[in-house]
Amino acid sequence: MDVEFVFDVPCVWSYFAYARFQRAAARIRAEGGQVAVRFRPFQLDPRATADGEPKIDVLRRAFGVEADDAVAGMESKAASEGLTFRHRHAVWSDTLPAHRLIAVAAGQGRGEAMVERLFRAHHTDELNIADPVTLRRLADEAGVASRDGGDEDVRAELARVRAEGVRGVPVFRLAGRTLHGALSEETLYQAMSATVAA
């Protein structure tokens, strides 16, 4: 079974969705099913820079005085699902380099591990995922041989995703179905089970 996952790394809902998907996919695989994931890039903020800025500042511009409460709420929700969110010192930066690394990792059969590590790097470790030194270290941790180049391929894929009408993430596509949002583990499991059974 082939599954497309359209996402951006700093998106909290993308991280929730991916963590739930991983658990659902593990159940399918334990039952003897095969799940292949194609990761497709999306950028919440194409104008973000490589140096980045504090994520909390970005959130305060977007949500005003409610930003701090929203962050606290997300951190609590993440904890309830076994994830650790730390956004007080997270860095909001260009995600094209991270998506490029994901493409490289996918070509080496390490896409799933690389995506999980990048989510954790941003949301838990508060690292700048546009920094080349950081990305090389994360690649090493995920068992990926990093390489230079590939920006134009990622930009072309970003354009294709936009041309398909994607305006927000996360999005899953499987067996001709498109599923939007941070769906529950059970919803994802049932969707994949139905695809396996079809």
TrEMBL record:
<dbReference type="InterPro" id="IPR036249">
    <property type="entry name" value="Thioredoxin-like_sf"/>
</dbReference>
<dbReference type="GO" id="GO:0016491">
    <property type="term" value="F:oxidoreductase activity"/>
</dbReference>
<dbReference type="Pfam" id="PF01323">
    <property type="entry name" value="DSBA"/>
</dbReference>
<feature type="domain" description="DSBA-like thioredoxin">
    <location>
        <begin position="3"/>
        <end position="192"/>
    </location>
</feature>
<dbReference type="InterPro" id="IPR001853">
    <property type="entry name" value="DSBA-like_thioredoxin_dom"/>
</dbReference>
<protein>
    <submittedName>
        <fullName>Predicted dithiol-disulfide isomerase, DsbA family</fullName>
    </submittedName>
</protein>
<dbReference type="GO" id="GO:0016853">
    <property type="term" value="F:isomerase activity"/>
</dbReference>
<keyword id="KW-0413">Isomerase</keyword>
